[in-house]
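Data deposition worksheet. Section B asks for the primary sequence of the deposited chain exactly as it was used as input, without tags or linkers unless they were present during the calculation. Section C holds the resulting structure in token form. Section D is free text for depositor observations; keep each observation to a single sentence. Incomplete worksheets are returned to the depositor.
Section A, Depositor: J.P.
Section B:
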Amino acid sequence: MNQAARHFFAPSDVLAAYCTVAQVPLHELTDASKAREISRPRHDCMWLLRDLTAATSAQIGQLLGGRHQTTVDEAVAKVADRIAADPDYRARLRQL
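Section C:
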């Protein structure tokens, strides 16, 4: 689909919906924790924010606890790789 023709959502709406659907509290996504049980959901949320909003990596990083844009770019790339390799994971993210 043409980027200009895409409808983007507000980042705050995507973040709120993700927290509700994934049952992950916002404070955990914005926390400094690097524990796998929260870093994976945070990466998923970064990917969704990148895919569903017009937010830049820097803006997404700020939304999620002041992370650097490089961190966001790396997380988005990891999720994209996992989506390509794992059909079950791809289906789960599409449901979100």
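Section D:
The two ends are 20 Å apart (CA to CA).
The helical segments are 11-22, 26-30, 36-52, 57-63, 69-85, 87-95.
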